[in-house]
Design goal:
It is built from ten helices and 13 strands. By secondary structure, the protein is an alpha/beta fold. It has two domains: about 210 residues, Spore Coat Polysaccharide Biosynthesis Protein SpsA, Chain A (Alpha-Beta Complex); about 80 residues, no CATH class. It is globular and about 60 Å long.
Length: about 300
Amino acid sequence: MKEIEVFIVINENSPKEPLGNQLPSDASALSTAEYLPCATALKEQSEYLGVEMAINVVNANKLPQKVKSRMVMVLDQSIFLPEDFLLNLVSLNNIYKSEAVLCGPVRNHIPTGSPDWFVSDVASYYKSYSIGDFSSSMCFEITGERHNYPPCHALTIPSRAYNLAGGLKPMKTPRGNFSDNSMFVNRIASKHKLIYAKSLESRYFISPTELSLKNFSRYFYVLGYKKGFSFREDEEESYEKIWRQFVNSSDPNDNMILNCLERREDLDQERAKIYSQKIASFKCVYSLGLLEGLQGEPLL
């Protein structure tokens, strides 16, 4: 039995690695900063540490329902890992005796030279994830804190939890299927501890083709949809949420998620106009996702 089975989910925008092929210049620059594409990093680190590991590169809809390894790792193909990632992971897994779901911060690596200044300006929030940055604690439990749950593109899961959940499947929405399925995280966290460790930090490489207003808008829609869908588990809470956020409130957005979209006072008049229009579009698509997630059907 393998110790860890790794599933690297294909991302059409990611650097076409895997396992050491030539990378674009921006990705190569990230590699020189002691981060390597996830497949290469895990292959080298598992061989050095003697950890039995199987690495699979798959489409999101081809993830298995069950596995036979002790642990399962799910990574987006655009994730880069530091040289001590696997050592830190194995150490934490030993502490929690293979019974905890493990995650860590995901920071973005933003390519240089983007023609769209606005997209570059907000890119650090796209698919990133971190909590407790101002805390002195290096590792803490977040079980039950749904607002702090991680995305699905950098998770390590006990195989028993993965199998009981029936595997990770894409989340179906009226606007298409998305691999980041928050319901999967909710299911596994209902029976296992969810541990956040700063030592499990990774980098998400945003390729130049991914750095677009369209992709960012889809991302905020999915955030809204996931939030709305989570409220459907309690009909009374769904009703209260709809009434409070879309009827009584002048701002139907979730400020915890959209707090990155702040007013800018340092822009000239023309850029301030563009900035406000595009921020408004993000808030609109988030609201659309939130309502469609709550109702379970398309609005338009």
